[in-house]
Specification:
- The protein is 44% helix and 16% strand.
- With 319 residues, it is of the alpha+beta class.
- The chain folds into two domains: 233 residues, 3-Layer(aba) Sandwich (Beta-lactamase); 64 residues.
Length: 319
């Protein structure tokens, strides 16, 4: 587990394994959103402008755009909202396509220096991870990866992968999909340090990255996300605002955000876990972190926070 926490009122912070790289999964959608909104503020894009859903944009994961008709158009405003609140992977692909990887990563580097590795679209995550099984995985299309995901658990997906490439298990470079993803994580793509993410969130909250309107818009979306009910939020008091984003992948989960009980103060938190055997136990560790934050925020409500039962919540699919 890695954790970075900063009290934005007095500047004190806590860091545990926060200076090393962690695979960030869907939490990278926050810097993508910031770069997009910065381009809007520069005049290069408009939130009202529409882009067309292409077949190549579709990918498995959270959200409903995957099932929309090819050729349908969506405004950047709607795609941004879906990417954050629903963690929609197809919306993410559309926005990354619009920005282009070069412009996107130049923007992220300007935000966080070398604190983040290269950020890609969701299809590229699949392609690079599965290429650790066999290099010909790069020949697969986004629709192939959707079919592989629909196969079921990792063992079933592996069988579909073998069938699609018409290869045998003896030709694989990794024995399981889990092993392949572990190799992929070591490339530090879609990864970053929790310290860098914490600084990014601090700069967002304090208005250093976007104008007041766009800062408020993004924070509102982060307050409304549909995932993460069993993570840090589960340890916070029900009335404690938490502008957050979660991320989930094979043997990886993250939860980052801004706990801001009052407009004049706030706490930044960025946490990731890896190599766990049971995701519910990993999520419980994040709940415990939320309880600790609630205790620090308001000791008198700590007992209530510790006694909260977790809501069923909407699980976030790996992305």
């Amino acid at each position: 587990m890695g954790v970075y926490i900063k009290n934005l009122t007095d500047g004190s912070d806590l860091s545990y394994q926060a200076s090393r790289n962690w695979y960030l999964s869907s939490t990278t959608k926050i810097p993508i959103a910031i770069v997009l909104l910065q381009e809007v503020e520069r005049g290069g894009l408009r939130l009202s402008q529409k882009i067309t859903l292409q077949s190549s944009d579709r990918i498995d994961g959270a959200g409903t755009l995957l099932h929309q008709k090819i050729g349908a158009t969506f405004s950047l405003r709607e795609l941004l909202k879906r990417m954050i609140i629903e963690s929609d992977s197809t919306a993410t692909n559309m926005l990354v396509r619009l920005l282009g990887r070069s412009r996107l990563n130049a923007g992220i580097e300007a935000l966080a220096g070398d604190g983040f590795g290269p950020v890609t679209d969701i299809t590229e995550v699949r392609r690079e991870a599965y290429s650790e099984l066999h290099p010909r995985a790069r020949e697969l299309t986004n629709l192939d990866f959707i079919e592989i995901k629909k196969s079921g658990p990792p063992a079933a997906r592996l069988n579909t992968f073998l069938r699609k490439l018409r290869i045998t298990r003896e030709e694989l470079q990794a024995s399981t999909i889990e092993d392949a993803f572990e190799r992929y994580y070591r490339k530090n793509t879609n990864s970053g340090t929790l310290e860098a993410f914490g600084k990014l969130l601090e700069n967002l909250f304090t208005g250093r990255l976007l104008n007041k309107v766009h800062t408020g818009m993004l924070l509102e979306h982060l307050n409304r996300i549909e995932t993460g009910e069993k993570r840090i939020k589960a340890g916070l008091h029900a009335d404690t605002p938490f502008a957050q984003k979660t991320g989930t992948q094979i043997n990886r989960i993250c939860n980052v955000g801004i706990v801001h009980p009052k407009e004049s103060e706030g706490w930044v938190v960025a946490a990731c876990l890896e190599n766990f055997q049971n995701q519910s136990q990993a999520e419980k560790a994040l709940t415990n972190l939320g309880q600790a934050l609630e205790t620090a925020l308001s000791p008198q409500t700590a007992t209530a926070a510790l006694g909260r039962t977790q809501k069923p919540g909407k699980p976030e699919p790996p992305v």
